[in-house]
Design a protein that fits this description.
This is Crotonobetainyl-CoA:carnitine CoA-transferase CaiB-like acyl-CoA transferase. The chain has 18 helices and 15 strands. The strands form 5 sheets. A 6-stranded parallel sheet has the order 5-2-1-6-7-8, with helices on both faces. A 3-stranded antiparallel sheet has the order 9-10-11, with helices on one face. Strand 3 and strand 4 form a beta hairpin. It has 404 residues and is an alpha/beta fold. The chain folds into 2 domains: 239 residues, Crotonobetainyl-coa:carnitine coa-transferase, domain 1 (Rossmann fold); 82 residues, formyl-coa transferase, domain 3 (2-Layer Sandwich).
Length: 404
């Protein structure tokens, strides 16, 4: 796998990140920085690598669909952090880095000599990000953090699904992913502050904290009402009609966001001017109060139209709408291709492969996939030579002793 040349200016070019994290939240954070141009060195165990190299569908011998989703644009170095020499090399890499990201159990990094205070002594400008399950200043600081557990504890599962349905998790590990993005934001803020202070910071993130943030406006509603908000499935709690509806030949999304759109929806889309003139449906507040009357009739009316015709009529009436696609159809759609959101590359083991491209675009250019997800330890020799000036004999000695 060769690094690709790309003329797009990279805002984090020159920033080096030492990624000591594993699984998803930390790697997602590091990948966000990598996507923006940082040189991210991912440290993995010499034998097993990142845990996610054993999750999902196999891609070649040691990569998987799960691993590849969170590790593009990184270089992989293997180090045994249970060995003195492995820790020594990690400390030397940290001394030459701008950012360190780790998600060891609380106290784990310190036991290895890789904690914030220990690394700050050798690199005062270091921005150090610790990701844990729970805030480090609470009694639960040492509890391990897992996405699904936090989805339950933070009330996130209570918002999903239909009325009467039990707790339901997100389809993806949303808490891990949000934590990764929040962590990247905080790191960027610390790097910005360092420009004026010259000093690094200890960014401390917790899955529970970020999971609670996902409750967002539902959380505010629960506090105001003094009870859990009702579940609405694919519908909106306060806007009607708004949600997923069935046409004669498939589902689509219709979002009637204001009263003017409702008038056009009734008169121009489904030919029901009587609804437009009905006081029970004249305002969104009235429609919400009478949703049990309006929605069954509306659903029956929509089933009389082919989806393509409905989408055409809705678009002509300037009402936001769209198809409901399967995941594969969405990934392979013209829309995805036109936006350049799927990057294809040749893997030396698995042949033609694809990864998602970064979501970031600046000045009309998408941030590039400079390097596909790395094979385990693919860049060990190059990084040790480039940054630590080790020669072939020293590297061979480390490898013979299982340090790398």
């Amino acid at each position: 796998m060769q690094q690709q040349n790309n003329a797009v200016p990279l805002p984090l070019a020159g920033v080096r990140v030492l990624d000591l994290s594993r699984v998803l939240a930390g790697p997602m954070c590091a990948m966000a920085l990598a996507d923006l141009g940082a040189d991210v060195i991912k440290v993995e165990h010499p034998a097993r690598g990142d845990d996610t190299r054993d999750w999902g569908l196999r891609v070649g011998t040691r990569n998987t669909s799960y691993f590849n989703s969170a590790n593009r644009n990184k270089r992989s170095v293997t180090l045994d952090l249970q060995s003195d020499d492995g820790v020594k090399l990690a400390r030397e890499l940290a001394a030459r880095s701008d950012v360190v990201i780790q998600n060891f159990k609380v106290g784990g990094a310190e036991k290895l000599g890789l904690g914030y205070e220990q690394l700050r002594e050798i690199n005062p400008r270091l921005v150090y990000c610790s990701i844990s399950g729970y805030a480090r200043f609470t009694p639960e600081a040492e509890r391990p953090g897992y996405d699904l557990v936090v989805q339950g504890e933070a009330g996130v599962m209570a918002t999903n699904g239909e009325a009467g349905q039990g707790p339901l998790k997100f389809g993806v590990a949303a808490v891990d992913m949000f934590t990764g993005m929040y962590s990247a934001q905080a790191i960027l803020a610390a790097l910005f502050a360092r420009q004026s202070t010259g000093q690094g910071r200890h960014v401390q993130m917790a899955l529970y904290d970020c999971g609670l943030m996902i409750t967002s406006y539902y959380g505010m509603e629960a506090l105001l009402k003094g009870e859990d908000p009702a579940k609405f499935g694919n519908a909106h709690p306060s806007i009607v009609p708004y949600g997923v509806f069935d046409a004669a030949d498939g589902p689509l999304v219709i979002t009637v966001g204001n009263n003017g759109q409702f008038q056009r929806f009734c008169r121009e889309v489904i030919g029901r001017p009587d609804w437009a003139d009905d006081e029970r449906f004249a305002t969104n507040t009235a429609r919400s109060a009478n949703r049990d009357i309006l929605l069954p009739e509306l659903r029956n009316a929509l089933r009389q139209f082919p989806r393509a015709e409905l989408l055409q009529r809705l678009t002509a009436a300037q009402i936001p709408c769209g198809e409901v696609l399967g995941m594969l159809d969405a990934l392979q759609s013209r829309r995805t291709a036109q936006a350049g959101l799927l990057h294809r590359y040749e893997d030396s083991e698995a042949g033609p492969q694809s990864v998602l491209a970064p979501p970031y675009a600046m000045d009309g250019h998408r941030m590039p996939v400079r390097m596909p997800p790395p094979h385990m330890g693919e860049h060990t020799d190059a990084v040790l030579k480039e940054l630590l000036r080790l020669d072939d004999d020293a590297i061979a000695d480390l490898r013979s002793r299982g340090v790398i």
